[in-house]
Design a protein that fits this description.
The protein has a domain of 43 residues: YefM-like fold (3-Layer(aba) Sandwich). 27% of the residues lie in helices and 18% in strands. The protein is built from 3 helices and 3 strands; from the N terminus they run βααββα.
């Protein structure tokens, strides 16, 4: 199975590709005019993947119960 494929080639054989992804565990990227738009990956029961990616990324957290002022949010937007 290809790693990347146009959506026009994917559409007629969608169920075949789903079965192949399920069987092999490989990802498939669907493109539109050569630009990646969707990545299809097999489902896994691992719910900690997101947490594990963030583990150890907080460098310092001095006062977690301190209120946040409105001006503290300005730099986010």
């Amino acid at each position: 199975m290809k790693e990347k494929m146009s959506k026009s080639k994917f559409k007629p054989k969608v169920l075949e590709y789903f079965r192949e992804i399920e069987k092999t565990g490989k990802e498939l990227i669907i493109t539109d005019r050569g630009r990646p738009i969707i990545k299809i990956v097999p489902y896994t029961e691992k719910s900690e993947d997101g947490i594990e990616a963030l583990r150890g990324t907080v460098l310092e957290y001095e006062n977690p119960t301190k209120p946040v002022a409105l001006e503290d949010w300005d730099h986010l937007f």
